[in-house]
Design a protein that fits this description.
2 strands
Length: 115
Amino acid sequence: MKQLLDYKWEGDYLVPDLKIEEIPEPLTKYGLMRKDYILKHRPVLAAALKSQMKLFTHCLEIQNTAKERYDRMYKEAMRKNPPPHQNVDFLAHIQHKNQIIDQIEALIYEELIYS
């Protein structure tokens, strides 16, 4: 049977050898959304990641992947379908950008966050 925790002797007692992960960067929007989803809707995955102390690492990977994908898709969408010039029609310019952002985020949520 695989042991989930390592133990060490301190005097006459055997205590868990707990290690604190160093946090390279905080979780932002996509990482926090993934963490919330896992904790609320995927309890088995959450328990497995927590017991291996990999929940933060998993959410950070999802966050970085989502951010890279968002940036790449946004640039590509704006190149293929540029918005109207903001000096000509400011509201159409903003609406166009918001539609692109909504479409990209819907794909990211479906593929990375809520899967």
